[in-house]
Amino acid sequence: MPENKFKIAKAEAGDAKAIWLIRNSRPVRKNSLTGKAIDFKSHKAWFANKYFNRPVNHCFVLKEKKGIIGYCRFDLCKNKYVVSIAVGPSYHGSGFGDRLLSRAVEFVEANKEIIAEIKLKNLQSIKLFQKNGFEIYRQDKEIFHLKLNRQKNSFYKDAVKLYYLLLKQPPRKSQAIIWPQGDRYDRGRKVLELYQRKWAPIIAITGNNALIGENDRAEEKNISVERMASWLIRRGVSQQDIIIDKNSLNTKEQAGNIMNLAKSKKYKSIILVGSAYYQPRAFLTFLKSAAISGWQGRIINQPAVMPWNKVPGGRKKFVWQYFMEEMEKISKYKKDLVNIRQGIKNLTKA
Question: 317 lies in which domain range?
Fold first, then answer.
């Protein structure tokens, strides 16, 4: 919808019913923490007390010609704002939630922390909040707890944008599938699927046999590159179709050795398969190594996606925790990577 056809405004007392209808719709209740329907009389009294008798709380609405199509609430609790957002069911998937949240947070006091609580299964809301600078910082049995990182907001929003672009990239016929060592066999399943569907005739495994024990690399119990190859062979991959690089101790070395291979073999494109949480840093590192080596081919991303609340193979923490660590590593190892916006440009160019 064009910008001039909708507006975000402070809610008025007369908006109570429109907000109640959205809140009580089945799809919205399904993702709410309580899930219970609320009668209008109770809602109206609550709404008036919450947002008109207590000015510290805020409620914003998204309006268009037909009326209110969404709302975003900020309720002060223990000196923190708890944000809740909903859009009418007929407008789901139209980008209105993104517009509403990104604009609404600008109206809230900058000296107050903003947090959100989202069900583990509500993947669309998690994506929405991550795109707008919210980071997962805690996980309960059924809920993710997120907070807005104002200081890193621009960097984090760019990183999340890159992450979701990587997930959306379609496969493309290539000369080799790259399987970087890590997370045991989690990435191997995606590698095998791509090979079986004939997206590429060669699988290149890159890693080492020196840092595969838990005592060698903290919180990481890897498998040898030979075991990775054997796993593929047992599932029908010809040994002749497997190339092994066992001289790479880290992502930078993996990227450098694979780029040299791609250049020597005159590959036009390769498919990079990392774990999804790790894919942004891997991709940015491979792009930097491609530039250094002079390889001018295309890197296709096909990450192995795992739920945010899963523990990757051989590790001890959840996927969302490793994703946050990867964001830090992108900054820490920035000399070894192209920057995030260069990565986005690479993915969005014609």
Answer: 170-348
DSSP string covering 67-112, please? EEEEEEEEEEETTEEEEEEEE-GGGTTSSHHHHHHHHHGGGS-TTS
| Burial of 119 from C-beta contacts in 10 A (0-12 / 13-18 / 19+) | middle
Beta strands in 268-347 (DSSP E): 269-272, 298-301
- How many domains does the chain contain in total? 2
Among 151, 186, 220, residue at a domain's last position: 151
Residue with tokens 């944000």: 83
Domain of residue 187, CATH code: 3.40.50.620
- pTM for the whole thing? 0.81
What is the tens place of the pLDDT at every residue in 40-84?
Answer: 999 999 999 999 998 899 999 999 888 999 999 999 999 999 999
In contact, 135 and 113? CB cutoff 8 Å: no
Residues 338 and 196 in one domain: yes
Do residues 131 and 21 both lie within one domain? yes
